[in-house]
Amino acid sequence: MKRIFLIVLDSLGIGQLPDGAVFGDVGVNTLRACAQSEKLHIPNLLQAGLGNIDGVDCLPKTAAPTGAYARLAEASMGKDTTIGHWEIAGVISESPLPTYPDGFPEELLQPFRQATGRGVLANAPWSGTAVIEQYGQEHMHTGDLIVYTSADSVFQVAAHEQVVPPEQLYEYCRIARRLLQGKHGVGRVIARPFVGTPGNFKRTANRHDFSLEPPRQTLLDAVKAAGLDSIGVGKIYDIFAGRGLTEHVYNQSNAHGMEHTAAYARKDFRGLCFVNLVDFDMLYGHRRDVDGYAAALSAFDRWLGGFLPTLNTEDLVLITADHGCDPAYTASTDHTREYVPLLALGKAVKPVNLGTRKTFADIAATVAELLGVPLDTPAESFAGEII
To answer: In sequence order, what are the residues at sequence separation of 6 or more whose Cβ sits closer than 8 angstroms to the Cβ of residue 171?
Structure first.
């Protein structure tokens, strides 16, 4: 293949993994929640074979799917964006990244306060919207930073853009990233700017993630080292700490990301275009908005219907996810431990059921084989089954 578009529908899980209860997730299924909404209309994904995937019983099946399809299990010990994307790129994380259900210890906060010259508010697991409502006014009055976490391995810093301009907030997060190493090496430090007034605060699109570097070579590193194009669209640059990319662009929304992807398809490149569409997770999954999630999937489906006919015979589209975030799950507002889908589409693709795969990393092994790139990953390629 000449060009591969790897598109991550951030958080589109398709059912609880066998070890879901260990992660506090029982009966979760992001896709099933969306299927119960009248806003879901996804004819192109259904025709591709989404409803034919192992274990998917909430959608109709098609007798003649246009794509290859599979259910992927997560081999890594986590359910967050960083670990999920690393696994898609060939790196399986056998140990979970550190989490802080009781907040961050003073041994971290003291040097952070000293380096930033600002105090700390919250310091506990919080919903991102709830924490700014609770502490936003005090933050505006004192200038102290709102520091919080979640069930994921994250250190999040929220600040009003009129109190702390985004570039200054990013610098504070870089300080935190330097402090959060070793046993405190969280997956991501996240800048969470917001605007508005008390009772009407709103997070902005100026979010920025500062990720831990992957511990080993990833698919992106391998593609770049082979002299091919390695393009990141959306959060990909942040998730991989900038490593392994020859070019990148940020998204302001799913629609923006789809525009970027279509623009790259009009260019003559050779290699990988790795895309993250985060609105599914950030705007709808965490906020437990079933109809919003379903409507966003429908919008992607409409775009996909127009995108596929523009591709060449040596192009391949892989659609997957990095974890779940069931918008109907009321036990928490965190990610959910789920299987994820895989759809392979393109003029050269042979429709086939690839079954249930042991790891997301099978994607990396497949992409590497199809691009002729050497990659050391404990995974199995399905390239020979689909082309």
So the answer is: none
pTM: 0.89
Q: Cα–Cα distance between 316 and 51 in angstroms, integer?
A: 20
Contacts of 117 (CB under 8 A, 6+ apart): none
Residue type present at position 345: L
CA distance 138 to 148: 15
Please write the tens of the pLDDT for every residue from 288-298. Answer: 999 999 999 99
The superfamily in CATH containing domain 106-210 is Phosphopentomutase (3.30.70.1250)
Closest CA to 326 of 18, 45, 5, 26: 26
Which amino acid is residue 255, in one-letter code? Answer: A
Residue extents of the structural domains in the chain: 3-96+213-386, 106-210
Tens-digit pLDDT profile for residues 150-167: 888 999 999 999 999 999
- CATH number listed for the domain at residues 3-96+213-386: 3.40.720.10
Spatial separation of the C-alpha atoms in residues 385 and 352, rounded to whole Å: 8
